[in-house]
Fold this sequence. Notes:
With 154 residues, the protein is mainly α. It has one domain. It is elongated.
Amino acid sequence: MVNKSFYYFIKxxxxxxxxxxxxxxxxxxxxxxxxxxxxxxxxxxxxxWIILWIVTTIGAVASPIIFIRKLKKSMERGYDxxxxxxxxxxxxxxxxxxxxxxxxVSSSKTxxxxxxxxxxxxxxxTAWIAIPILITLSLLFDQIRKIKYLEVRx
Length: 154
């Protein structure tokens, strides 16, 4: 059944955001593993980062659209999304935003060929930038949910 609270998404997102402050390094390591895997498959290192940035940018734009569609369908059926659905979205979107923003503050050549001791540090900062974006998306989802709830009720 649909919960009447109009702050349904923001609460779990705020909890996730607290964890997000500390998991930034873990998700960054994940991206380095993916880049290493692509390199192992024969993709040149700097091209692997460009591929990652393109895929995560598309994902960062597409996942909220997919989530909104899923939200609307579930509400039309009279149900809410579970907290697990919200957490999975937050983790995926957080990771997509983190990686795609790194393209703005670094270059693929720097990540692959520079050994200044700060390779990958920008991923931690972009993860922290992703947190307010996630909170904003959750506020948007709560507004969409409120509108949809009022439509269903009338």
